[in-house]
Fold these 2 entries.
Entry 1:
Amino acid sequence: HVQLSGRNGYRFYDEKLSNKTARDFLMETKLREALLSDELQVYYQPRVDSSSGSIVGLEALVRWFDCDGKSIRPDEFIPIAEDSGLITGVGEVVLHKACAHAKQLCDAGYPLPVSVNLSPKQFEDSGLLNILDDALFNSGLDHSLLELEITENAVLGNLAESIKTLELIRSRGIKLLLDDFGTGYSSLNYLMSLPLDFLKIDKIFMDKLFQDTKHENIVEFIIVLAKSLGLKIIAEGIEEPEQLDYLKRKCCDEYQGYLFSKPLPFESLLELVGDNFS
Ligand code: C2E
Ligand code: MG
Ligand code: MG
Ligand code: MG
């Protein structure tokens, strides 16, 4: 039967849905505790220059190991954090840890920019700019070493308002990346109007790259499009040497993926960066 639910309007009520809701509730409670007991960690995946093969940046990715040591994937808990409002707390933890680590790297002689993912709720939050300023101030990190990753659905709601927010962020020297490009509406109108620095092509295009020429062509098109807008382009989820060869031929600036490295805890990353720079 049909049930009225507050936020989402009518939806079909069934066993599966009610189970999921109970699970979500449990997850929310656990996440609340996780924030209090500092269970969230930040891992880092290198961003690599396609032509030179050197590390040119890092992406901060949240990791949650619960009290039993079990890991819970961000794909599972980020949506619940968004719905429950806990995302603000999660985001602040990630931001503060990422800035502190980036500062530590910089002081060790490796001034690598670190990008932090922002979910749509965080982007809408009126406290966002204060949170950013606090994280930069507390860590002492050079503003140019902080970058933020936003997605298309975060900015679509109110384009004019989003542009204002993005400009305020950028006026602080923080760079902006558009994440998961190609999976949303990918409207050319907003792409042209948003103040951005980087475009990230989503992994799904890389997975299908050699399936047919259509996918090769669309990736080539996105690279040319980004460049014509003055944006640097990053490919996500590169696992095969053939994918990297293709990206090099098409002059894609940077890539990330298991081919080079999985996301790593800070200590392991420090070693990898040391090797890469020497
Ligand atoms: P994303 O920002 O698009 O991050 C890329 C995801 O792809 C990461 O998954 C990364 O570990 C994974 N990945 C990178 N290279 C490869 C590869 O070669 N092969 C495969 N199979 N996967 C690869 P992760 O860490 O599980 O994060 C998933 C998503 O959760 C992220 O997608 C992002 O949307 C969200 N997320 C992660 N950390 C945060 C955070 O601190 N805050 C917010 N708001 N969202 C986050
Ligand atoms: Mg990202
Ligand atoms: Mg992505
Ligand atoms: Mg993603």
Note: Confidence is low (pLDDT under 50) at residues 1-6.
Entry 2:
Amino acid sequence: SNTERTFIAVKPDGVQRGLFPEILSRFFNKGYKLVAIKLTMANEPLLREHYADLQSKPFFPSLLSYMLSGPVLATVWEGKDVVKQGRILLGATNPLASAPGTIRGDFAVDMGRNIIHGSDSVETAEKEIALWFKKEELVDYKPTLYSWIYE
Ligand code: DAT
Ligand code: MG
């Protein structure tokens, strides 16, 4: 449906490198609707929940310190197939395996500095949105361009 939502976060390196306007543009240009946005510092309990499935991995401590190294730009986007399409816009986890034209393919080299996060399923997206945002931080509006993007 057109109201599917995904959680996209520009990681501390993407924020420090000033890449977030370019990243936001890619989602806007595709036709997706921004429903929440905030610049925020993560914290360890939040990250342990966000990356719960990775806690036993050897790279987890460096992932934690990376994600705590500066502010994160947390966003929520809405639109048709936005979870899967968002992952396509991001590219592969390893930037060296990401095609040019994708965000990681165009702007990153190392897996541990891959500049952006995107939810990997609709269920994960719902959990991540609830983890990073309060309900009242998600806004409800109709974009003026809506009928030029959806048939
Ligand atoms: P993604 O961010 O593409 O969803 P993921 O959820 O498997 O990938 O992993 C979360 C982050 O952890 C990923 O963006 C970068 C880091 N990471 C994953 N696998 C890694 C590895 N093998 N070595 C180092 N960092 C890794
Ligand atoms: Mg993931």
Note: The chain has a mean pLDDT of 98.
